[in-house]
Amino acid sequence: MARAGGMTNAVNVGIAVQADWENREFIANISLNIRRLFDFLLQFEATTKGKLAALNEKLDVLEHRLQVLEVQVSSVTTNPSVFN
Amino acid sequence: MQQWRSESGAMTFDEVSMERSKTFVKALQELKNLRPQLYSAAEYCEKSYLHSEQKQMVLDNLKNYAVRALVNAIDHLGTVAYKLTDLFEQQMLDISTIEMKISSLNERTFTCQAYVDKEGLNQLQMSARTSRHHKHYILPDSVCNDVQNKSHIPADGNVNPIQAKSHSHAPGKSTSKTLSWHLASEVNSASNGSPLTAPCTQDAKAPKVNSEVFHLLVAEEPAPSLPLSSHLRASSGNVTFDMTSDKFGSMDPLGASKPSTSKTFGTHSKLEIYRPHSRSKSMLSTFFTKNKTFKTRKVSVP
């Protein structure tokens, strides 16, 4: 009886260990995927920042060019006699 | 993006962009709402595992919920990323279109500026051209026609070298006559009988006066007088001095009354070209104001 009890205890321990190992595996998988998600987020942030910076630079350049054009057009409209 | 355009075909470009931005904002809001949901689910699972008797079942449920929550979060995150990328690409497309339009405007302004600069340069060049001066003095047609009518080519072979030079020019060039031509014509007209008539005289009375003077000269001096051409030839050295020495004195009404001898001729006798005061200015004098000295210039006989 004692031996049977001992054997059941060993089996239970074994099962518990196995379950523990499964749980740990599950947790490791979850944490790995969360880390991958975190890396994806970081990479996404870096690329988005770079693209937005390029977009901002393009917008600045366009703004300056538009200002120059605006000044040229205003000069023409204010002094039309020069071009007649 | 194409689905949006097919579904909302009647919508304008701004409306489509607004819709796109709205969906992005919605997806982002949903992702943000996931955080409190996950926090509440984690608290519920912790309490139920602590207070419940069937811990294995709670654990299994917790595992399933964690997997589904993670998949849901990744799904939401992907949606947000896709919406953001789509929005960014649309903005880039709009900016590239605007850049092309601005470039075209720039090109137009550059073209206009180049045209204005070219026109200005042409105007400056034209003004520069008008200020040029011709090398020879060119007389107008009306004056030259009068000169041609008055001047006569001598029949004899004794042609003044100046005349030869002038006649070397093309006869068809009546529009412009050089200075040398006018000098020659003046000399020629003088040799023909109107000794002091200018090639082109503006005053019509001048030739008449000259003829009157000529007649006066002839009346005063009984001695025969040679034409002016002979005197000029003497000045050029073509005729012997002995023959013309006496005649020189006879032709000079303003100079010495007595006929000049060879002595005086030898000692630098000078030929004076008489010009009556009543005569108007010759064409040459109008052009050469400095040549008043030329009138009284004395030709030294070598």
Summary of the model, kept short:
Chain A: This is (wild Malaysian banana) hypothetical protein. Chain A has 84 residues and is mostly helical.
Explained architecture:
The complex is a heterodimer of chains A (84) and B (302). The longest helix of chain A is centred in the middle third of the chain and has 77 residues. Chain A has one helix and no strands. By secondary structure, chain A is mostly helical. Chain A is rod-shaped, with a radius of gyration of 36 Å. The relative contact order of chain A is 0.04. Chain A has one domain. The two termini of chain B are 111 Å apart. In chain B, helix 2 packs antiparallel against helix 3 and helix 5 crosses helix 6. Chain B has a two-stranded antiparallel sheet. Chain B is built from twelve helices and two strands, in the order ααααααααααβααβ.
Q: How would you describe the oligomerization state of the chains in this entry?
A: heterodimer
Distance between the termini of chain A: 119 Å
Separate helix tally of chain B? 12
Order of helices and strands of chain A: H
Beta content of chain B: under 5%
- The shape of chain A is rod-shaped
Number of helices of chain A: 1
Number of strands of chain B: 2
Helicity of chain B, in percent? 55-70%
Subunit structure (chain A): Binds SCAR.
Main location (chain A): cytoplasm
Protein name (chain A): (wild Malaysian banana) hypothetical protein
Keywords (chain A): Coiled coil, Cytoplasm, Cytoskeleton
